[in-house]
Design a protein that fits this description.
The protein is α+β, with helices and mostly antiparallel strands and 483 residues long. The chain is built from 13 helices and 14 strands. Helix 1 runs antiparallel to helix 2, helix 6 crosses helix 7 and helix 7 packs across helix 8.
Length: 483
């Protein structure tokens, strides 16, 4: 919908009511959702309306006895996958059509990361908020028509808050229209091997034609991990902030499940509570998908049980040799992708920022403030370190971004810190520490003067990326490379 649409304010109020009603209906309310979606473009009247009855019949159900009590039997599906071998360790209704809900946003992020890598988008670029984006129902950032938002903030808000308005801003920024973007999402999904998946929007809001399978979602997770190793650590973010508000990641398993790395949660009434989770223990990474949970807590508990069992089976070598194998197809080359080429976005600078520069993480300035950024504090030559009191030798400091019970989690914290501050010098390490009979792994970036370490920590904490403290490196510290 464009800002000049006749009677915009009346339409916006009407659309908000219609779309919000779709979230609480006992089924997907396809006619209302279709009408709301099509009203945003001038050619709405000429577009065919999906046949609800035909599409709904294709959704496959499962007998109640096949599903645990923690899930809705007719919406349940699950799969656990060894990310390294592709072997399926557990599955139930894994190829049955289901509604993805906000798991859709993981594919929106795939398309966004791809655009950044190709130079069509910048992390610091500001995208406009359309009228259509502003009327998306919660959860949302409450973006207003005419606002502009940095791509970085849109990415962070999709990962943590699962903001529907942010998803539309990205879709329109990349394809001009959400419907066109959804078509490209579907094309890319099929190219990756997600043959049973169809996307109708960028957010996962109710649409009768938007379906997927647990197997396809596992393939999507495989592709994200493989194709975007620079961006993948962002899924471990537990908080983000925008416009002075802190948003906590909806994926609560990051708080309590050992080895959890991300990915995405989702919910609409017709799908139940969905989750794609990636976790790593003892060097083995598993991908889990659970769809149709009766509540977020019940879904998480069930996911934990399935993942624990799968980790135990791998450890005991109980995986069947003839287990089904899933794999994401190779990432298509840009020239042969089969997607309609997009014009490069004008950025005012020939070099895209991938990942964001250190200065991009400074606090947001008011719109009227000058656009000039302060000098890069990490680009100053001939840095001097202060005396240590130990014979005039320079003291070495570290940014410590947490102490964790396992080394893999500590390494992920280091990766996230270095991704967020790519101009930062020093080396990423983990430092084991024995305490009361257990080992903690301190995640650090070492080899920094005190001023640089303090500035880096301030940027991480101000932007709600990681907790951080400046610590002095002691002579008996043992640091293991974690870069």
């Amino acid at each position: 919908m464009k800002s000049g649409f006749t009677g915009w304010r009346l339409w916006r109020a009407l659309l908000a009511v219609v779309i919000a009603a779709g979230l609480t209906a006992p089924v997907l309310a396809p006619v209302a959702a279709e009408a709301a979606s099509k009203s945003k473009v001038k050619a709405a009247a000429s577009k065919p309306v999906a046949k609800t009855a035909t599409r709904t019949k294709k959704l496959q159900s499962v007998k109640r006895s096949d599903a645990p009590a923690s899930v809705k039997a007719d919406r349940y599906a699950a799969i656990i996958l060894d990310a390294q071998t592709g072997r399926v360790l557990h599955e139930a209704n894994a190829n049955a059509l289901r509604y993805p809900a906000s798991l859709t946003k993981a594919m929106t992020l795939y398309m966004t990361f791809e655009a950044i890598e190709q130079g069509r988008l910048r992390m610091d670029q500001r995208l406009p908020v359309s009228g259509w984006a502003s009327v998306q129902p919660p959860t949302k950032l409450d973006l207003k028509e005419g606002d502009t938002v940095q791509v970085r903030d849109l990415i962070y808000s999709l990962i943590t808050k699962s903001a529907n308005d942010a998803a539309v801003v990205l879709a329109e920024g990349l394809a001009g229209d959400e419907d066109v973007f959804a078509q490209r999402m579907t094309q890319r999904a099929h190219q990756l091997g997600m043959r049973s998946t169809t996307f109708r929007n960028a957010s996962g809001l109710p649409n009768d034609g938007q379906t997927t399978t647990a197997s396809d979602l596992a393939i999507m997770a495989l592709a994200l991990i493989r194709d975007f190793p620079t961006f993948y650590p962002l899924f471990a973010m537990q908080e983000s902030s925008y416009a002075g508000r802190v948003h906590t990641n909806h994926n609560r398993m990051l708080d309590w499940y050992p080895g959890a790395e991300g990915l995405k949660t989702g919910y609409i009434n017709a799908s139940g509570f969905n989750l794609v989770l990636v976790a790593k223990r003892d060097g083995r990474r598993l991908i889990g998908v659970v769809m149709g949970g009766r509540s977020g807590q019940a879904r998480d508990t069930h996911m934990g049980e399935l993942m624990d069992r799968a980790f135990a089976d791998i450890g005991a070598n109980r995986v069947a040799a003839n287990a089904r194998v899933l794999a994401a197809l190779p990432k298509p080359a840009v020239a042969a992708s089969g997607l309609t080429p997009l014009a490069r976005v004008s950025t005012g600078s020939p070099a895209p920022l991938v990942p964001p520069t250190f200065n991009d993480l400074s606090a947001r300035k008011p719109a009227a403030a000058p656009a000039k950024l302060p000098p890069n504090p990490f680009a100053v030559a001939n840095r001097q370190t202060g005396p240590s009191g130990q014979g005039g030798e320079p003291a070495q400091y570290a940014m410590q971004v947490g102490a964790y019970s396992d080394a893999d989690t500590a390494r992920r914290a280091v990766s996230l810190a270095r991704f967020s501050l790519p101009d930062l010098n020093g080396n990423g390490t983990i430092a084991p520490l024995e305490r009361q009979g257990r080992t903690l792994y301190r995640a650090r970036i070492i080899g920094l003067p005190e001023g640089e370490a303090a500035l880096g920590c301030r940027r991480l904490t101000q932007n709600n990326i990681l907790d951080c403290a400046v610590v002095r490196i002691e002579d008996d510290d043992v640091d293991i490379a974690a870069n």
